[in-house]
Amino acid sequence: MVSPNSAIAFDNKIEGDIVISRLDAVINWVRTNSMWPMPMGLACCAIELMGTASARFDIARFGAEVMRFSPRQSDCMIVAGTVTYKMAPHLRRIYDQMAEPKWVIAMGACASSGGMYRSYATLQGVDRIVPVDVYVSGCPPRPEALLDALIKLQDKVKRTPSLKNLTA
Amino acid sequence: MPETVADDTTTALQAAFPSVTLRESLDLPAVTVPVDEVIAVLQWLQEERGYDFLVDITAVDWAENTSPRFTLVWHLYSTTRHTYIRVAADCADDAAPVAPTATGLWPAADWHERETFDLMGIKFEGHPDLRRILMWEGYPHHPLRKEFPLAGIETELPDIEVAEETAAKVIAAPMMGGPFVASSKGEMNLTDAEPRAKDESWNEKLPKPE
């Protein structure tokens, strides 16, 4: 028996070839471990995002290494950088083109709140145009912080009543 | 610092164009030119004096209710003689400033003039493609003008569909009250400000403790 919040353990000597679980747990297990990012690299945070994807920090350990530049194939938009008002509608359209289920990580001060750019040209937080699941502080955040955000997002997904949402 | 080689360019320029006056300058040789002669002057500098590189086109807004309000500035460089020169011209009309385009002399003038138009609202006559370059098409203001507040002015988002769906707007975002900013009394808001600013034991005036 697999519960959504415990580690998945399967012993084929006891249970044979049949795994009994809850659909929620199975769906969330699948979603959690292949969360393909949509890298919205708009400023210097994108450099840290690249660092997170590379060998030293290796976001592949969490199943999120497949950066998809097509919104149709991605699950999690990582807004890495300053969003200008000129860019904001494009960002929203890319978000709209992503298939459900989809999540958003606001990476860094600019994406979270506009950061130091209190000006006529900068969107004051990406949560004004897209729903944000996890905010990451930092300017820019360390790769570890982004990985922590991804783990937090995975925890959030594990707690989602996915079956109810699918059939609703 | 650019070289300030003493040469006869400005005197020769004044001999060729009697309306050219010398301009106060701390670094480069600088001249003031009537705006209707400026293209002829730039062409003369390019052809006769080897100023083959257009470094920059920009403008100065001397504030509302001043006349002349807008001054155009061109910076030229000679890649053979390694000298700079600054050419300035006052726009005649303070409300709707107009200047001639330099795209016929240097193709690079295209984007510089688009930027000056975008941020200062100066129209360049004869420009092949005078659109905004930084702000979006349809933005109603020219942000580098003196009457435009740094915080911005509330307007609509560039995309109507997205604006309707998200109910988001371009908002005025004053520095005061935002993150990273002290209050007007000079005190940091210790609850809202960024965490590191809470340590005020050292700053620009007090030395960092050992």
Task: Lay out the secondary structure.
The complex is a heterodimer of chains A (168) and B (210).
Chain A: H1 12-15, H2 23-32, E1 37-41, H3 45-53, E2 76-80, H4 88-97, E3 103-107, H5 108-113, E4 134-136, H6 143-158, H7 162-167
Parallel strand pairs in A: 1-2, 2-3, 3-4
Chain B: H1 9-16, E1 21-22, E2 30-32, H2 38-49, E3 53-61, E4 70-77, E5 84-90, E6 98-100, H3 109-120, E7 123-125, H4 160-166
Parallel strand pairs in B: 2-5, 6-7
Antiparallel strand pairs in B: 1-2, 3-4, 4-5
> Could you say how many structural domains of chain A there are in total?
2
Distance between the termini of chain A: 25 Å
Specify the number of helices of chain A: 7
Helix content of chain A: 25-40%
For the biggest β-sheet of chain A, the strand order reads: 1-2-3-4
CATH domain class of the largest domain in chain B: Alpha Beta
C-alpha-based Rg of chain B, rounded = 23 Å
Task: Describe the main β-sheet of chain A briefly.
Answer: 4 strands, parallel
Order of helices and strands of chain A: HHEHEHEHEHH
Task: Identify the strand order in the major beta sheet of chain B.
Answer: 1-2-5-4-3
Helix-strand category of chain A? alpha/beta
Kindly report the average pLDDT value of chain B: 84
CATH architecture of the largest domain in chain A: 3-Layer(aba) Sandwich
User: Helix share of residues of chain B?
Assistant: 10-25%
Output the helix-strand order of chain B: HEEHEEEEHEH
Q: Major sheet of chain B, described briefly?
A: 5 strands, mixed
Terminal Cα separation of chain B, in Å? Answer: 37 Å
User: How many strands in all of chain A?
Assistant: 4
Oligomer: heterodimer
